[in-house]
Specification:
The chain has 136 residues and is α+β, with helices and mostly antiparallel strands. Helix content is 18%, strand content 39%. It contains two helices and seven strands. Strand 6 and strand 7 form a beta hairpin. The protein is elongated, with a radius of gyration of 16 Å. The model has no long low-confidence stretch (mean pLDDT 93).
Length: 136
């Protein structure tokens, strides 16, 4: 497995263990998904950033950083429940949480960011941006 896939898998395993109240279906990248009738669900995006070389030898580990973004999608005009769900998602990824997969440690670097909601014609979306790093 490549390092990129190893990091993504570590993060997605944590997403799979997300126990929300109420439970919501999760849309994952490049996986078929049907929007539920309730129009309430999560979308997950894996957004790796550029890697940084921290050591002299090229074969030494590189710092690999990025964002796991989980967006709470909610129907319009139904109150602020999406913000509460976003808070539950953020609590599931606390600062300094260590995730492990295939010998690689992925660390959540800080408390997740929850910017203002995004209103579209059909939904109210609250993104949760989770910053991570791995040395691999």
């Amino acid at each position: 497995m490549t390092i990129e896939k190893t990091i993504e898998a570590a993060l997605f395993m944590r997403v799979a263990n997300l126990a929300l109240s109420p439970a919501l279906p999760i849309s994952r990248p490049n996986v078929p998904f049907t929007v539920p009738a309730s129009k309430k669900y999560l979308t997950v995006s894996y957004l790796p950033n550029r890697s940084r070389r921290r050591f002299l030898k090229g074969s030494n580990p590189h710092q690999r950083m990025g964002i796991l973004q989980i967006t709470v999608v909610w129907p319009l005009a139904t109150g602020s429940a999406a913000t509460d769900i976003a808070g539950q998602v953020a609590e599931h990824f606390p600062a300094d949480l260590s995730l492990h997969n295939d010998g690689v440690r992925v660390r959540i670097t800080k408390a997740p960011d929850i910017p203002p909601p995004i209103k579209s014609d059909v939904s109210w979306s609250v993104p949760v941006s989770i910053s991570y790093e791995a040395f691999a």
